[in-house]
Specification:
homodimer; Multidrug-efflux Transporter Regulator, Chain: A, Domain 2; Globin-like; 3-stranded antiparallel β-sheet; 3 strands; 3% strand; DNA-binding
Chain lengths: 245, 245
DNA sequence: TATAAGGTCTGACCTGAGGTTGGAGTCAAG
DNA sequence: CTTGACTCCAACCTCAGGTCAGACCTTATA
């Protein structure tokens, strides 16, 4: 199947000029060029274009896109990476939106925001840190948020792993439609609480309360939601169900 | 309170050069310029800068930003509009993400996507349509799933549409990470309840209770969850947050 | 008090990702 | 065989800054 510039443009939303530009810089070559100079694109080229547009959405420069696509010829892996990045971007917009909402409530009151808050999510330096390996980021942040006040590195690692396991389980349970009243959910919460009890006094009630509290913290909530949509709410309910048993 | 270029740059994340540029094109003037030529920015200027950055995030050109800020001197209304636009953008990213995910599953199977699907969300023409009346778009996608088994066509249609809009909104809100405490969520619940009140006596508390009750009914829960993982939990929380306001 | 280190101002030039204009060739339909 | 839509290509323009370079200012320290 071959497409003319016009067809490709209509399908993908880029202009003909842009296609030409991409050809000139060697980013996307036509499948074939007829004797009259007309350019024709095939299915493979469309896939490439799609990928280019995903990257462009992420504000990659065309040069970077080119090298990225050369270095990682596996379409699948490219796509997966793009997904990660796009999710990170969504995250960033969430933060900005949050800042914006705060700005609105301050403006309504006629009050002034703190200068750092004002630019949360907008300040790129800060944001680039959050961009990179989200997983570490999740780990770090989660563990740090649970065990404030401990120092020992190894123990901390163990805690991070436990927390991560717990979250993974809950995430799977939610995806699989397991009810918050299910026994396996309760028993995992039970184990998790037992683990927590090593460091702090905590019981079912206060765990439920704490889950709820965590939800009020936007940052935390987003972290869970990033892992699985709806997770923060699910955990909260599960904790409540467990506590009310 | 006055800030030097350096301080503003660090706070906001823009470069000094950019500040200079904004001054040159008259987008953001310093509060005062000392005799030695040094520029100083005050709190008002920081607020303006914040707003500029919000707009920039939305890919407004600097010229447009300038006129936008001149035409709408009310900071509050500016912010609210920006919020709407930013939420629209987030939805667009959601769509792209969805396309990306589909691309991944197709790639895993080694199959080919349909050409239109391939560019869903990326194609700007199409997207601009989706940008403005977001609601129509929502209609199409959802209305079919709610209104099975209706009797009175017209009245039911209205109800179906309302319910459908409500659920779709909540679903998007959840996907986009909007907090259950967010004003827009509350106001949508408010509207929904007002709508319900036409047919039955219901207030915030009983709505929250009913949401919770719905959750205990596996059939209803699964229906919501099928639409969007985590949705039943989210709605429940949102209702509670609304009731507790 | 001199000097170094670091901020600051300004203009001139560069860049990337296209858009615009315009002249000329090409295609399909009536 | 003409008309209207499509295509090619080159030269030039734009926008939002970045880079570089030279000169000036401020503050801390020797």
């Amino acid at each position: 199947m071959s497409y003319t510039v016009h067809e490709v443009a209509k399908l993908s939303g880029v202009t003909i000029k842009t296609l030409y530009h991409y050809q000139k810089i060697g980013l996307l070559m036509p499948e074939s060029i007829a004797e009259n100079g007309y350019r024709y694109y095939g299915d493979k080229e469309l896939e490439q274009l799609q990928q280019i547009l995903f990257y462009r959405e992420l504000d990659f420069s065309l040069g970077k896109i080119k090298t990225a696509m050369q270095n990682e010829p596996s379409r699948l892996r490219c796509l997966c990476e793009q997904k990660t990045l796009l999710m990170a971007r969504q995250q960033r917009i969430s933060r900005i939106l949050h800042t914006l909402e705060e700005a609105i409530t301050y403006a309504e009151k006629g009050a002034a925001m703190s200068k750092e808050k004002m630019f949360a999510g907008l300040n790129k330096q800060e944001w680039e840190v959050a961009l990179k390996p989200q997983n570490e980021y999740l780990h770090e942040n989660y563990s740090y948020s649970i065990d404030m006040g401990t120092i020992d590195a190894d123990a901390m690692n163990e805690k991070a792993n436990e927390a991560s396991d717990f979250i993974t389980f809950m995430s799977n349970a939610l995806r699989n439609g397991v009810s918050v009243n299910a026994n396996e959910v309760h028993s995992v919460i039970d184990k998790h609480i037992q683990f927590l009890q090593r460091d702090m006094k905590i019981d079912a009630q206060s765990f439920a309360a704490q889950s709820k509290f965590l939800m009020t913290d936007e940052f935390h909530r987003q972290m869970l939601e990033k892992q699985q949509t709806g997770l923060s709410y699910y955990i909260c309910f599960a904790a409540e169900s467990y506590a009310g048993k």
